[in-house]
Amino acid sequence: MAAAAAAGCGDGDGEGRRLPPRSLTEPALHTVEMHTGGEPLRVIPRLEAMEEAAAAGLSLLALRRHMAATQDHVRRALMHEPRGHGGMYGAVVVRGGAAADGADLAVLFLHGSGYSAMCGHAVLALGRFALDFGLVAAPQRPETAVRLRCPCGPVTAFVPWDGCHSGNPVRFHSVPAFAAATDVAIDVPGRGRVVVDISYGGTFYAFLSAEQLGLDVCSSKTRDLVSAASAVTEAVKEQFKLHHPESEDLAFIYGTILTDGKDAFSEEPTTNICVFADEQVDRSPTGSGVTARIALQYHKGLIQLNQSRTFRSSTTGSLFTGKAVKEARFGDYNAVVVEVSGEAFYTGTATFTVEEEDPLKHGFSFK
Length: 367
Description:
By secondary structure, the chain is an alpha+beta fold. It contains 8 helices and 18 strands. The longest helix has 18 residues, at 222-239.
């Protein structure tokens, strides 16, 4: 130890030494850690390559493609093991440039297998983050509107503000949400024919009761629910053609939400589980999923404007509320703007590093 100190490698007892104790070929990644209803959110407050691309004039959808093409190693390093896990979710904050388009911030959503167009649990958390980290020029008490630009379009979060700190609950108003198709018969290999509804809440989901698959969303094993939902997602992808009114980049099925079938208005919570991307399970009731489900219920005449419903996650028991607040038109669709409310919390901050010689430096994933 004395020889190491004499050689300029630090003092012998290691005190005051900064980790890692060697130079790195890639810059450290600093994150803010949060969760909403149990669903994690790893916020990357600044990614220089994305801000440079935004300053060059790339739109947010173009920026999403650019990150996938040039910076996907960042997503894998932070979402996958050993720094992340199979349920990790992330958000890259982009300030200024064409991507933000007059909003307080733009955001790219990350998960284990790629990039999403919308994420409600992330929006609820980012509303607090934007206020607490000074991204909103003139916050107002007792509640501040935080304007976010998401790949699906502009979304506004409404965040309690006491003059110093953000609070809960946070709510957001969605992009126009609509029922894309109802009562669609789908043949699911090994499981038979089911009838699904397809609805959009910033991204598209297939909806059906777990009972159609011989399961109970409240009591069946999560593994069985995940397997069944994933099979439905793949079958819908093969058998139903989606259309988005503004961009074909957004015309994809993100996942399947299995419900308890309680779609008619009630004061009691209705339970669901969202399985998205590559068999990733949302721990929260799913903000974009609640948005899409409210739009579906409104389309079917099961709820009215400003009738609030409570949605429970079958994985954690956490709750979101949702309601349709006004009618809208989106392309050829009759749509609604949906308000979703929930609670987001900070869990810490982190600094992640990458050593060049690490064979697993950009993460790994397995099932």
